[in-house]
Design goal:
Elements: H1 3-14, E1 22-26, H2 30-42, E2 45-50, H3 58-64, E3 70-72, H4 77-82, E4 85-88, H5 97-104, E5 108-110, H6 112-119, E6 124-128, H7 133-146, E7 151-155, H8 161-164, E8 171-175, H9 178-181, E9 191-194, H10 208-216, E10 224-228, H11 232-235, E11 244-248, E12 256-259, E13 264-267, E14 270-274, H12 283-298, H13 303-311, E15 321-326, E16 329-333, H14 340-347, E17 354-358, H15 371-377, E18 378-383, H16 388-394, E19 401-403, H17 407-417, E20 423-426, H18 439-454
Parallel strand pairs: 1-2, 1-4, 2-3, 4-5, 6-8, 6-9, 7-8, 9-10, 10-11, 11-12, 16-20, 17-18, 17-20, 18-19
Antiparallel strand pairs: 12-13, 13-14, 15-16
């Protein structure tokens, strides 16, 4: 799309133009900086506000945009009053009083994803879900590359969507969070999926119904719906008259399914690949692979290209990542497990041989749903972090329980009781911010501690 066409689209969709519009970027993180770059390229006036005294990218922003107003240390009322449009970053809750007042005054709310959708005329794949979306997004990108497609991958993962426009790709694969989707109205993906819906982010969303509704926004339009037949909430999102492809690890009536007895991934009645060849840990990752292949079919990727990409795909760091094996004990880093659903998925397929390290900030979620999975898979649970007691309450009385003050102690406790054939699994079911900067630091600390006991 040429620049004038892009400007025309911004005008027609959002009444954004160079002459009259003054956009206020709320939140100076990676998304906020990408919006600033985009608006600069469009020659549209903007300013930035952030409630933090020193946002992480404020220095970089000031160097790139020395003449643009930046208001930090609170939500400056004057900045909101002058603005015609608000571009609120995903990390900022739109229920913030300053934002709500501005919206009641008639300011328009626009998301970075809406801006992207307005100026892009190439196919988009939208991927969301409580768990697995980064794996599916990355793997689908690799499959597209293997098929010779000029693809750009990002969104909630890696590069923000607006920055991807510089790549002038023929296909965009976007991971989308519920925070991005709740303020997105224009996106119409060629193919989209909600991988699963489990309790998460209820500190921002009112309840599960609201959370699921925000996820469902990814299906706006008439693109192909890729649905998880194992998730009743996802299947309730079906829309009559739409092209749908299903995937499942339990239902052989799905379009893409797992033949557990034969150990094969299937496309209807045709074998795709042996599950033993899939280089990813856990049954939930087989579900992710099936979802990715369904998306690949929806956008026309050849089967062999999908298989080639899959066979060389080693997964993502901190997502069921095997970090060590010694004396018959396997150590797995699943630090990205920040909710109960992710932990339950990680425990699937194991039977009484897992030493689970869990705990952190539960974000107000009820962790009692962990109980059946722990009872089936675990021989020992080690808790840590702010909401260790929530994890402990979910542990069956038949599973031994210990508490660690930090991740290093948790690893030492696991090493003291692990025997040949055991899996030591860091899958916290909680956010990391009570003890770490993020899940990456938590996973790295776990890996360092593991190396200290196995070498």
């Amino acid at each position: 799309m040429e620049k004038q066409e892009q400007l025309n689209s911004l005008e027609s969709n959002f009444a954004i133009n160079r002459e009259d519009s003054k956009l206020l970027i709320v939140g100076l993180g990676a998304t906020g900086l990408s919006v600033a770059n985009f608006l600069t390229s469009m020659e549209i006036k903007f300013a930035v506000v952030d409630s933090r005294e020193k946002p992480p990218l404020v220095q970089e922003f000031s160097e790139q945009f020395p003449y643009i107003g930046v208001f930090t240390g609170g939500f400056d009322r004057a900045a909101f009053e002058v603005a015609t449009h608000l571009v609120v970053s995903p990390g900022v809750d739109i229920k913030e009083p300053s934002i709500q007042v501005a919206l009641k005054q008639g300011k328009a709310l626009v998301s970075d994803i809406d801006l992207f959708a307005a100026v892009n005329d190439k196919p988009i794949v939208g991927i969301t879900g409580s768990n697995g979306k980064s794996t599916v997004t990355t793997l689908l990108g690799r499959m597209a590359e293997a098929a010779g497609i000029n693809v750009a991958v990002g969104g909630n993962l890696g590069m923000p969507a607006l920055d991807l426009l510089d790549q002038q790709a023929d296909l965009y694969v976007l991971e989308l969070s519920s925070f991005q989707l709740e303020r997105t109205h224009l996106l119409q993906a060629t193919a989209a999926t909600v991988l699963n819906v489990t309790e998460d982010h209820l500190d921002r969303h009112q309840n599960m119904d609201v959370y699921a509704h925000e996820k469902q926004r990814v299906f706006r339009g008439q693109g192909v719906m890729v649905l998880n037949a194992d998730d009743a909430i996802v299947m309730d999102m079906r829309e009559s008259g739409r092209n749908m492809i299903s995937f499942s690890v339990t239902d052989n009536q799905a379009d893409y399914w797992l033949d557990q007895q034969a150990g094969k991934l299937m496309h209807r009645n045709e074998e795709i690949i042996s599950s033993d060849i899939v280089p990813l840990e856990g049954v939930h990752n087989l579900s992710n692979v099936l979802a990715t292949m369904a998306l690949g079919e929806a956008i026309g990727i050849e089967k062999q290209a999908m298989i080639d990409a899959l066979e060389s795909f080693k997964g993502l760091d901190h997502r069921m990542q095997k970090v060590a094996e010694k004396n018959g004990v396997i150590w797995i880093n699943d630090s990205k497990s920040t909710n109960a659903g992710a932990c339950i998925a990680a425990l699937k397929g194991y039977f009484h041989n897992v030493i689970l390290i869990a705990g952190g900030d539960a974000k107000g979620a009820d962790l009692s749903e962990l109980r059946p999975a722990i009872q089936q898979a675990c021989k020992q649970v080690i808790t840590m972090g702010k909401d260790a007691g929530e994890v402990a309450a979910a542990v069956s009385e038949t599973v031994p329980l210990e508490h660690a003050e930090n991740i290093q102690q948790a690893v030492r406790l696991a090493a003291s009781c692990a025997k040949e054939g055991d899996i030591v699994l860091l899958s916290p079911a909680c956010a990391s911010l009570d003890q770490f900067k993020n899940y990456v630091e938590r996973g790295n600390r776990f890996t360092e501690a593991v190396m200290g006991v196995v070498t």
